[in-house]
Amino acid sequence: MSDWNWHSAWPAPAKLNLFLHVVGRRADGYHLLQTVFRFVDHGDLLRFAPRADGEVVLATPLPGVPPESDLTVRAARLLQAATGCRDGVEIALEKRLPMGGGLGGGSSDAATVLLALNRLWGLGLPRARLQEVGLALGADVPIFVYGRNAFAEGVGEAFTPVALSSVWYVVLEPPVQVPTADIFRSPALRRDTPAIAATDWRPGVGGNDLQPIAVELYPAIAEYLGWLSAFAEARMTGSGACVFAEFATPAAAAAVLAALPAGWRGWVARGLPEHPLAGLGAP
Ligand SMILES: C[C@](O)(CO)[C@H](O)COP(=O)(O)OP(=O)(O)OC[C@H]1O[C@@H](n2ccc(N)nc2=O)[C@H](O)[C@@H]1O
Ligand SMILES: Nc1ncnc2c1ncn2[C@@H]1O[C@H](COP(=O)(O)OP(=O)(O)OP(=O)(O)O)[C@@H](O)[C@H]1O
């Protein structure tokens, strides 16, 4: 992927929060979290073409999102501003991840833009610098730049890599979009879960502190969790709405998906050992 090629698709995978605890709150209102991020092999795709006029143009605007606010456009402009780069780009986004789904879709798109344009514009910024640039766009952007499954702390920007086994997930999409800020603003949110050491985390440890709040606000999430729980332990990712459960084999996951009630949306994804762009040149 060293050259501009409109036909090369750059992946922007989803993440799952295998657990998510709110352990405190910063003076600016942002919440201190502990979470494990896991990448899965289902996500959006991006394509890029150079523009000589220096403009950043989104060829595929999303319904309800003005291009100026789209995280892909904002990421490209922020990279121009951070480096003084005068090159432009046309971006095409093939959206597969639901918005407000807790899968980090917009954040992953932004991270893939940063990684791709760092390469295509020949900027040579180190990954750590791209993570900083990404944090200005959203708390979930740095993990996608970092590129390894990780135990995360702070607002989700301080990472300890974790090795995760190869498993499959059934991910269901309740038909609601959850605004992340609404969940964090809830007076009912528990903000004092005791912190754990990264080395004490094992798969299965911990829950999602945001889940009771989201379930209360959006009964569809409770309904989907209830259905999936009949097959395996089910949990919400991020601030919702999507819910997931883990399976040891792709056949076991496919069998659950095959039983999905009519009209429900869901998919099976493999847990990845790392982000598909983790090996990309950025130091
Ligand atoms: C819930 C997670 O998805 C877990 O991975 C992330 O923490 C959310 O990350 P994100 O969607 O990138 O969120 P941002 O766009 O940075 O923040 C949206 C809003 O959520 C609240 N917010 C977000 C992250 C955080 N650690 N504490 C917060 O209180 C803030 O009100 C913020 O204005
Ligand atoms: N490229 C983009 N893709 C998705 N949403 C975008 C994009 N650009 C801007 N947005 C805005 O960001 C909001 C959150 O979208 P996103 O898909 O990142 O949510 P999410 O999956 O809940 O993320 P997180 O797990 O980070 O909370 C959307 O409702 C939309 O208004």
Automatic annotation (TrEMBL):
Record keywords: ATP-binding, Isoprene biosynthesis, Kinase, Nucleotide-binding, Transferase
Pathway involvement of the protein, from the record: Isoprenoid biosynthesis; isopentenyl diphosphate biosynthesis via DXP pathway; isopentenyl diphosphate from 1-deoxy-D-xylulose 5-phosphate: step 3/6
Molecular function, one GO term: ATP binding
Catalytic reaction equation(s): 4-CDP-2-C-methyl-D-erythritol + ATP = 4-CDP-2-C-methyl-D-erythritol 2-phosphate + ADP + H(+)
Gene3D superfamilies, A to Z: 3.30.230.10, GHMP kinase, C-terminal domain
Domain GHMP kinase C-terminal: start-end pairs: 208-264
Keyword S-adenosyl-L-methionine annotated: no
Active site: residue positions: K15, D140
InterPro entries assigned: GHMP_kinase_C_dom, GHMP_kinase_C_sf, GHMP_kinase_N_dom, IspE, Ribosomal_Su5_D2-typ_SF, Ribsml_uS5_D2-typ_fold_subgr
Domain (GHMP kinase N-terminal): residue spans on this chain: 71-148
GO biological process: isopentenyl diphosphate biosynthetic process, methylerythritol 4-phosphate pathway; terpenoid biosynthetic process
Residues the entry annotates as binding ATP: P98, M99, G100, G101, G102, L103, G104, G105, G106, S107, S108
NCBIfam families according to UniProt: ispE, PRK14608.1
Role summary: Catalyzes the phosphorylation of the position 2 hydroxy group of 4-diphosphocytidyl-2C-methyl-D-erythritol.
Family listed: Belongs to the GHMP kinase family. IspE subfamily.
Protein name per the record: 4-diphosphocytidyl-2-C-methyl-D-erythritol kinase
Organism: Azospira restricta
Gene of this entry: ispE
